[in-house]
Structures are given as C-alpha cells and as structure tokens.
Amino acid sequence: MQWIAMLTMLIDHVGLVFFPDQELWRIVGRIAFPIYAYALVQGHRYTSSRPRYMLRLAVIAALSQIPYQLALDTRGLNVVVTLFVGALVLYLLERSKSWILSSMLIVAACTLLNDLPFDYGAYGLMLILIFRYAKPSWLAPLHMLLNLLFLFVNNWELQMWSVIPTVLIAYGPQIWRKLEAVRVSRWVWRSFYPLHLVLIAVIRVFM
Fold first, then answer.
1. Is the dihedral of CA 139, 145, 149, 150 positive or negative?
2. DSSP designation for 30
C-alpha cells in the first residue's frame, strides 16, 4: 500500500505540473490521499510514542513546504501539514472526557483547515476521523458521503474516484476470500493459455 500511495502521488503531481490538461493523471492521483490518511491512523494507533510520531510528521511537513510551493507553484500548506493536524486532533480527542469538547475541537479544526490554505482542508481531517472511528463495513459508505458533500460544496468531481482505495481497504480481504472460493475446473485452467492463443490466431487469419 505504501508503494501504491507514493506512486499514485507521483503520478498526480507529474500530471498537475506537466500535463494539466490530461485528467487521467489526476484521477489516478486520487488514490494516494486515502491511503496516506489510513496509514496515519494505523501509525497513530500502533506507534510506541505518539508525541515522537507527531514530531516526525512535523519535521517532514517543514522539510516539504518550500519544495511543495516551488514544485506546484502554490502558496498553500502541503498535505503532511494536514496529516499532522489530523494526528494532533486524534491525540487530543483521546484525552477528551467530554463529547461536547470533542465536538468543539473537531469543528474548530475543520474551520482552521478550511480558512487557511491546507491541502485537502477539512475534507482531509474528516476522512482521517472516518478511518479512525468508523466500523470497517461503514468506511466506504461514509467516504462516499463525504465525497458527495464536497462535490456539492466545492465541486470536487475528481475526488469521487478516491473511494476506490477505501473500498479495497474495507472489503479487500472479504472479496479476495470469495474470489479464492470460486474454483476453475482443471481442464479449463490448464488449457486456457494455448486455447486463447489459438482463438486469437484464428481471428487474425480471418481478419
């Protein structure tokens, strides 16, 4: 998953900078952020030291800021800053004893992320919260609802594609087990390679 996140982010940024008129690059790039958000939640959950984990995020964010602005020609804050805020909110939520204070924290953080030029803004934090607190069976539906909300509010059409990795995260193991349960007869499995080549060759002859 980490390789997929890095590769799709690279594709997204290459498309944004060098091929801005070709939408396919950006569609592929929508895969990256949900994986990073999911990885953040897993890192927050299993790290041996959450303060050190957040410090590492802060260092990466600081080191990335100037290259981010130069490469993408923007004055905004890079996505690792958004992830850092997400990790900080998770840290504070776990220490909150009141759902009222927790709700106020989330609203304040979402407002801050939207008012300042954070990459992904409040959307990023809300997706992180979905990955942290939603049951696995609800991950994809809630992510789709979030996408629909921001489609309506910000006209983020491309972001609709970002639900794909969430579907795989939520249902991938179940889907794979079901696919594994479907058995192909031995003669079909063994004969497929030569037979499909014969079929292609026959079609080529008649064409």
1. positive
2. T
Per-residue pLDDT of the chain (207 residues; tens, 9 = 90+): 788 999 999 999 999 999 999 999 999 999 999 999 999 999 999 999 999 999 999 999 999 999 999 999 889 999 999 999 999 999 999 999 899 999 999 999 999 999 999 999 999 999 999 999 999 889 999 999 999 999 999 999 999 999 999 998 888 878 767 766 777 787 876 777 778 878 887 887 887
Spatial CA neighbour of 41 closest among 134, 164, 117, 119: 134
Given a contact cutoff of 8 angstroms between Cβ atoms, the answer to whether 107 and 146 are in contact is no
Residue 38 has phi, psi (to 5 degrees) of -65, -40
CB 23 within 8 A of CB 14: no
Residues 62 and 104: their CA atoms lie apart, in Å, by: 27
DSSP state of 182: S
